[in-house]
Design brief:
The chain has 16 helices and 6 strands. The two termini are 37 Å apart. Helix 11 runs antiparallel to helix 13 and helix 13 packs across helix 15. It is 51% helix and 8% strand. The chain is globular and about 70 Å long.
Amino acid sequence: MIERRPDYYTKFRCLGGTCPDTCCRDWSVVPDEDALTDYAAAPAPLRSRISQNLVTDEDGDTCFRLDGQGMCTLLTPEGLCAIQKDWGEEHLCAHCAAYPRFTEEFGCLTETSLAISCPEAAHLLLEAPRFTLAEIDDGQADSPFEGVDPGLLAGLERSRAQVLDLLRRPGGIWHKLRLTLAYAGELQARIDGGRYAELSACPLTLSPPRDNPRRQTAAAGLLNLLGSLEPLRPSWPLLLRERAEELARLSPGEYTALCVRYARANPDCERQAVNLACYFVFRHWHKAVNDDALYGRAVFVCAACSALYHLALFQPGEEAALWARFSREVEHDETNLETLVRALPRRTPSDLL
């Protein structure tokens, strides 16, 4: 079996109370059964507090209660969970203890990474010199899980490796993303025809770069689309619509000048954009084993990179915070993510990049 993760994975350390945000907000966390059993043996004052702040959600699951601001009611003024602060980190439920780590398993392949909804994980990705994967192979020829087509998984493995290699080559990020979209379109045609065996032989065709005069207008439309999704925090769609309006008001010359100023203010923006694109490809490409929707996910990767670049134009130096907000609002909301994977393929590549 192969185990794979970004090489910066082991550098992660939770910032605790000094984090600029908190993972104890917006999400209804369902403790696992082992944690619930553990809570019954908590020290008396804490046991009572935990019991008072466990509720039953609409699905009948036991979860931690959120207050009117979306904060977990076990969050202390120091920015730590009361369970962690008063009893110890080892008593956190599995979900809270694991975050922002996430794992995808395919039977013969296990992939682990850090969700950039966590500001510190986003910072590690932002600062990584190069998005590189560390891999361990135990030599065991495990089969994919039942329901995962071996030919499809093999094709996704080879094609994603090609895309990651392309993204890390010299050259502009927008051209490389256009090539990625074209490649994903070729792969999708074979997937739709059930020709999984042809995926590994499908070439990634290179072409000369070209400019896209529609990028500014397309970005404004994309931000408005993102702003129409169901938000976790009301401030998110307000920011998206405000930036979309600002982009739409710029003349072509003003837009070009804004891009130039941003590149001067952030000379590492190209490396950061490549790291971001690689993260999205690594996290989302293989999810096509579940529904065959590879092209939709490739379009999502490009849309996410474009949206976050254009948000950063107005907030240089705040890239990690923007990445974390986007991930929280979109990557962690299955409905929003599925909506984009379905809706975005109806746009042409020039409408995104």
